Amino acid sequence: MIPAFFATILFCFSAVSANRATRLAGSLEANFWRLVFATTLLAIWAHGFGGGLGGRAFLVFFISGVIGFGVGDVALYLAYPRLGSRLTLLLVHCGAAPLAALGEWIYLGNALSLGEILASATILLGVVLALAPAENPHIGRRDLVWGMGFGLLAAAGQGLGAVMSRVGYAMNAESGANFDGMTIAYQRVLGGLLIGIITYAWTVSRSNPRSGRTQTEGGFIRPPAGAVPWILITGISGPTLGVACYQWALEGAKSGVVLPIVATAPLMVMPLSRWMEGDRPGYRAVIGGTVAVIGVIALGLTT
Q1: Which residue range is the domain that position 161 belongs to?
Q2: How many domains does the chain have?
Q3: Residue from 241, 77, 201, 217 nearest 146 by CA
Q4: CA distance 86 to 139
Q5: Does residue 215 sit in helix, strand or coil?
Q6: pLDDT tens track for 68-125
Q7: Rounded Cα gap, residues 221 and 159, in angstroms
Q8: Helices (H), the chain
Q9: Residue 222 DSSP symbol
Q10: Among 99, 60, 25, 30, which Cα is nearest to 238's?
């Protein structure tokens, strides 16, 4: 429960800073640079103090990163500028929790108890209530449709990536290997970086001199100076420390339990998004937040 709570707080800061970074540097560019930064930090830790690329389940964690960090986070960064940080987190975590629970039941046979199911359903009911279209009149129809599509794809990536992580932990346990959360986050982020490089290369190939982007002689698109601090913040709070806590939580608890706790992130991010983005939630969002918090308390009592 505690690692999942820390991950939730860190994901809130990552979401708000990511939204700023995407608006200043572009979605795919911001995602690429924050992955480069996070991979560098995690590599220093993993090869200096952790397990590096060791472990029987390295390939499983790498594939988990391709799904979650890669496909999932590319979709996440395309959703941010369309929906904003609060609604994007809401949609992603709302969809990820039931998908992860279903996937873990199919692949690992870890069925949830009745109490856990009811508590998880309560959390998801709260976040869905806060997502009601009537609460978000400032978002255009086109952005809403595309944002929801990218958000659902990001949810699938996060949910399936979590299940793959649980498979990896089971494989390492069988072989007697035990790695810290930052080492596992490093093994996963490498898979995400691969997808990030591919999408970034596609962006560079489509860029033109009139786009306002600064392209170096080596072909890299240099992010605007104003975007750099936000890229660094989202890189530290999201794929570095946030995912490290997230992996720590998944090591000791089922994904169907961890993800509903993390699903409260869009409710906890409300004060930040109101302050930094001018996103003012209505009464349904407040009611939804209350329902979700009750669900988290119930989940803690039944776990």
Answers
A1: 2-205+213-302
A2: 1
A3: 77
A4: 13
A5: strand
A6: 989 999 999 999 988 888 888 878 877 777 777 777 777 767 777 888 788 888 888 8
A7: 31
A8: 2-25, 27-48, 58-65, 73-108, 114-130, 141-175, 181-206, 228-235, 241-252, 255-262, 265-268, 270-277, 283-302
A9: E
A10: 30
